[in-house]
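User: Could you write out the 3D structure of this protein bound to beta-L-arabinofuranose? I've included everything you need below.
Assistant: Certainly. Input first, then the structure.
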Amino acid sequence: MFRNEPEIDGALKQSARTCVIRHFASHLLLLATLTLAVTGNSFAQNPIIMDQFTADPSARVFNGKVYLYPSHDILATEGHGRIGWFCMQDYHVFSSPNLTDWTDHGVILSQYDVKWVDSTAYAMWAPDCMYRNGKYYFYFPAPAKHSTFRRGFSIGVAVSDKPYGPFTPQPEPIKGVHGIDPCVLISSNGQAYLYWAAGRIWVAKLKKNMLELASKPQMVQGMPPKGLIEGPFVFERRGKYYLVYPHAAHVSERLEYAIADNPMGPFKYMGVVMNRNPHCWTNQASVIKFKNQWYLFYHDNYLSPHFDKARSVCIDSMFFNSDGTIRKVIPTLRGVGVTNARQEIQIDRYSCKSNGGASIAFLDTSDTFMGWKTILDSAGAWIQYNSVEFGAKKPGSVEMRAMSNTGGTVQVRLNNPDGPVIATVRIPRTDGWKIVKSPLSEFQPGVHNLVVRMTDSENVEIDWVSFR
Ligand code: FUB
């Protein structure tokens, strides 16, 4: 079913068919989340970082927490980077105990901190981090001063006692490595490997000190012969090594994967993990297993729809078939997890919506970091946000931040667009945003999908919904 899915043209163009698939998937998710809710797990919406641009996510689980080491896109200005191109001068690290609540630990390394880096390049590209023997090793590509190598990229290492820094850069980049997008694997027998990209994927063993190569670089065998391949991420599952990588097979990059019995290959091409995104030329991924669930981290340009060098990290669940193959991941706005009903639920990060009369738009196109709103403008139009934890105690009322130039009425339903109505909310004609409240006529404890459905043919805009 997943292999024959058409390419997703952004989540905005969901068809009723996709919705049916999502309904089915949401029931599975609901079952999973009911189990997870017991262990206190919760989930995130896409994109996960809403106050800056992030890309090339390397997610790692250290000490029971998820650490995210992404690239940091900023917008170039005159004299500060190259306008119209990637502009990346530093790295932040983020952590989360539950994939929902993210802490930004601030800048851990900048191009100005590393002696060998050309600090006029603004090209601190896709990084990775690995733990060994009490230390955290942060690997990053950057153009070296006075480099004579192709595109000039070398790979450096910065070391810390903590996953969130402070990181101290080594005085020189790793000898013998020229390329971008480092990824480190420590296989179950304890050998560390460094992968990187230079047109194709390369691999070499690392010494125990994690700072030097222990073998000659070799090109990974078994990859598709044509098109740019970069951004390797390798992980081990059940004795097999999975290599996930972006491949520009046609116009923009799609995520593919290959499998090997040995970390150095040869790999066997297995298929597509995520279709190409027609709106964002690049994509790059990492994979983690966290609390018994596999997750794919990747990027999109949701917060910068007209400029794809300003990207945002997203997460979706990833599933394996019984033969070890990966099921294609369909990007969602909803992301992963259960949302607490008492929070401001961003229903514009929807799971599915009616074919007509429901749309989303930025709250403020001049400041996309403010997020989105939902617009309902015809009778029966609806939007559905899956997996909301209502808890055991009935909230006093439903609240919405809403506005309307006509006045309109919406129903709040549970589970699906025809599910039980738990509140009816009259949104008056307003000049601007207003908090509108309504009592709950019915309450069902536990985790439910939330549906907001228009009853009349007016026009309402909703920023968020909450139960308090
Ligand atoms: O983020 C800059 C570069 O774009 C990365 O290093 C590549 O993999 C691509 O995502």
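Confidence is low (pLDDT under 50) at residues 1-43.
User: Perfect, thank you.
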